[in-house]
Amino acid sequence: MSQKTIALLGNQNCGKTTLFNVLTGSNQYVGNWPGVTVDKVIGKISSKDWDVVDLPGLYSLSPYSPEEIVSRNYLLTDDYDVILNIVDASHLERSLSLTLELAAFGKPMVVALNMIDVMEKSGIKIDVDKLSEKLGIRVVDISASNRLGIDKVLDAVSNAQVPAVTNFFDEDISAKIDEVGKLLDDAKLSASARRFIATGIVQNDEIYLEDYKSSEKVMIAASRVRNDIEGKFNTDAQSYFPQARYQFIDSVIEECKISTESKTCMLSKAIDKVVLNRFLALPIFFIVVSLVYYGAMYFTSYLELIPFEGEEGTEYATITDWVNDNLFGGYVTDAVAKLCENAAAPEWLSSLAVDGVVGGVGAVLGFLPQIAFLFLFLSFLEQSGYMTRVAFVLDRIFRKFGLSGRNFIPMVIATGCGVPALMANKTIDNINERRIGLITTTFIPCSAKLPIITMIFASCFDGAWWFAPMVYALAIFSIVATGIILKKNRAFKEEVSPFVMEIPDYHLPTINNILKAVYERCRAFVIKAGTIIFAVVVIIWFLASFGFGEEGFGMVENVDSSMLAAIGSALCFIFAPLGFGSWQATVAVVNGLLAKENVVGTMAVVLGLDGEFEGGEADLNTALTQYFADMLGVEPTAALVPLLGLSFLAFNMWSVPCVAALGAMKRQLGSTKWWIFAMTYMCVWAYCLALVIFRIGGLVMGVLPFSFYTVVAFIVLGVFVYLLVRKDNSGLTPIRIPSRQV
Amino acid sequence: MTTLDTISVGQTVEVGKLSGEGTSLRRRLLDMGITPKTKITYVRCAPLGDPMQLDVRGYSLTIRKSDAALVEVL
Lengths: 742, 74
Known about the structure:
The complex is a heterodimer. Chain A is α/β, with parallel strands linked by helices. Chain A contains 31 helices and 13 strands.
């Protein structure tokens, strides 16, 4: 058996990734959400020694999205042997349009007609042999999800033929396009590549026009073809080609259809009548989201499932508590401590291992149960097809601030943890919306930020009921304002790709595919915790544990004399305008970068309470209120104390997220420049918000005198209002993708 | 001249011409099967009146009204 490379292509959501998994046995993520595969994935069919390249799902080869450009550039190279085109039998017309475009590459090709079972249920039968004959391409019927017909596919691929020339374009026009192709000044191009590019130029394909605009003879020949088409068919070149394609497809299907008793996807339509009903859609959506969120919380934080041997015999703990207190706080810590003891490790090493690594990484992994359950529910909704409908329902709201309906899912996930939330932004195909989404997703308070909210809530605000809703309102305000400010910026108008999206039929997801999706996402989360967090944990631990003590440089007992405290003292002037210019608060902010719940722990440590403040949370609250009051030189009951608390909270909440999320953000933004912009923006945003809260809030409440910083705060407020209301005058941007993005 | 964004829910129309020549949106619409003479049914709109859900060539497509204005219908 010879080595072959198979390029797997098909529409979004046609079962391509399912077939890829069946062929290669790999854990590729599957979702009933158009556009899940964004990166090119390669798998191996071990029995055959073949490579399968899973390309992004696409509807055509026009330069509409980065995925389509990536795919067609791949197809223009000669690095593959066979095109395996998956066609969704239940949406035959649209799927065959891509098939005809692929046939033009003149490579051996096989069409796998998928979901034939779904189609037959709807009362339509297709004569597969006749379809093969009419298309000039071998067609095999399969059902990827039921693993039917896979052998037939493998057999067809090993005997794949170049599509017989079935020219559905006008002969005269085809000949002229080939002439344009011959003029292209690139010796490496094959005949079929020349034809593809020439067809693109004739259709005003931005990218190829850019490449060949300097060649006058190509441009003239192409415009002559355009004129010919317009003269002959009374239509422009761009619409001629798809029109001719669909005409040909209509005639082929007409001949191959056996029965036409149309009952197409009755169930999906019936469900949508309720779920997408104008009046019910939003309430249903809120109920579903609440169920998902509370379901995840209930299973992990309320239901006491796990038995363990406590002080009073067998006790039960919730999954989250068990992971945090028993697993990481108990077993792992003890085991590591014991290991260090047995190995006679030096004190600094065991401190690094126990306090640094187990503490830091464990704190992040403690969220894993919650995230896993959240993923479980969300994967079900995604694979069933509901999430696409959510995007449809919410699009109008999100569009107002530069996002689309699809940005909603990442925000739900962000209430649990920012890392998977940022990863979920991958499915947003509009690059502007994706970027704004990546910058705003972590504004939603994640579960690691909850301890900060609780701390300020209990200390400075004395448990006022409206405090938590206010924090969430500020988070939503941050997202909306950021969206409105950024979307007006030219940088966020790089490509205006419109919201044209298929709504797939509902599928009942298989348990296997859901578990795979949950596993994949959790794995990515754990890897993040194990790499970036690990590295930063070591650094922060080092800074916090070493310093210049009485005996020179070495390990210090007290964090006061550590390097971290020195750095905090050097940097604390930055936060003075916000009211908390002390090294302790600065250190807490820096530690928050590691994991946001560290802010509370750090405050407890630097305020002189030891790490075990859990029994005496009241102590921390009193100490913190006293500390803030001392910093301001007022009584602990003064109205300025809550303002300082809110300012401190605002900066910790809405500045950059923890390092794990920053890593995910960098990967998803795909560019260091954008990453630095995002971090800068978030810091500036949080800083300004905290400044305005503290300075203007203090002035309005009559508890803070007018000062230089009040002026600064008013200027900030003015600039903000200007950015919010200024005219969006670059609204006439043409709809196109600059070729430099490719 | 009627455009696709102005038709009412439940109506079935036939596509005439598509404006917005040279844009990638137009090409996308054509590639998705919204070619002249195609029958399109407006199934429903989202709760806030936009985007619209269409039935095109046996599948369900959602499109914002501002984009649908590109499509002339008969």
